[in-house]
């Protein structure tokens, strides 16, 4: 539900989390009922920096520190993308041999 992806700031502004890192961080933070300010204090950063991270300005180092404080572990997956030639060969077969 879209309500799961929002946070009401100190000024009453509602902004949706953006990007995969921002959405993941906000979900983890809200699951332990922690405010941006408290998370920022725990990682030695500012509330504004945590907010920017959740709003789509990714900083890998800050993200990792936040996830660690929240009891998680960041995991990266790299998936190989097939080339046009490989896709062509799959569709029409290798006609060179």
User: Which structural class is indicated by helix and strand composition?
Assistant: mainly alpha
Instruction: Report, as a whole number of angstroms, the end-to-end distance.
Output: 53 Å
User: Which overall shape is indicated by the principal axes computed on the Cα atoms?
Assistant: elongated
CATH-defined topology:
434 Repressor (Amino-terminal Domain)
Radius of gyration: 20 Å
Q: Which regions contain 5 or more consecutive residues with pLDDT less than 50?
A: 1-6
In helices, the fraction of residues equals: 40-55%
Features:
single chain, elongated, 97 residues, disordered N terminus, 434 Repressor (Amino-terminal Domain), 6% strand
Detailed description of the structure:
The protein is mainly alpha-helical and 97 residues long. The protein has one domain: lambda repressor-like DNA-binding domains (434 Repressor (Amino-terminal Domain), Orthogonal Bundle). It is 49% helix and 6% strand. The chain is built from 5 helices and 2 strands, in the order E-E-H-H-H-H-H. The protein has a two-stranded antiparallel ribbon with strand order 1-2. A hairpin with a 5-residue loop joins strand 1 and strand 2. The longest helix has 13 residues, at 19-31. It is elongated, with a radius of gyration of 20 Å. Residues 1-6 have low confidence and may be disordered.
């Amino acid at each position: 539900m879209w309500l799961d992806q929002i946070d009401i700031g100190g000024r009453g502004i509602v902004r949706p989390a953006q990007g995969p890192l921002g959405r993941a961080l906000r979900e983890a933070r809200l699951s332990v009922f922690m405010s941006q300010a408290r998370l920022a204090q725990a990682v030695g950063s500012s509330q504004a920096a945590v907010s920017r991270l959740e709003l789509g300005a990714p900083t890998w180092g800050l993200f990792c520190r936040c996830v660690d404080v929240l009891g998680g572990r960041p995991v990266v997956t790299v998936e190989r993308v097939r080339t046009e030639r490989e896709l062509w060969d799959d569709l029409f077969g290798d006609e060179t041999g």
